[in-house]
Amino acid sequence: MLAALVLLSLAVALYMYPALGVSPYDSLAIILSSRLNADFKWCRIATDMVAVAIGFFTGSVVGVSTAASAFCMGPLIKAFTRCLQRAFPRSRGA
To answer: Is the full-model pTM beyond 0.85?
Structure first.
């Protein structure tokens, strides 16, 4: 489960970093982050927790993996994005 969580977070950072487009769900945290001038990881945790709460209140099972992904994906995506920024800096014009 932990390996999958890390790999999923890396994959999300890899498709978000080039700024070529994101999924509607991922864009919620990005929009909140820019509009509220808040850190992306906290906005991602908030959107994930809202999704978990909606699932729980509509009858879904919320297990350890669900809770771990809701709390850890935001910080992991942020960490991988920082690594990508150091390894592949974007030009100022882009």
So the answer is: yes
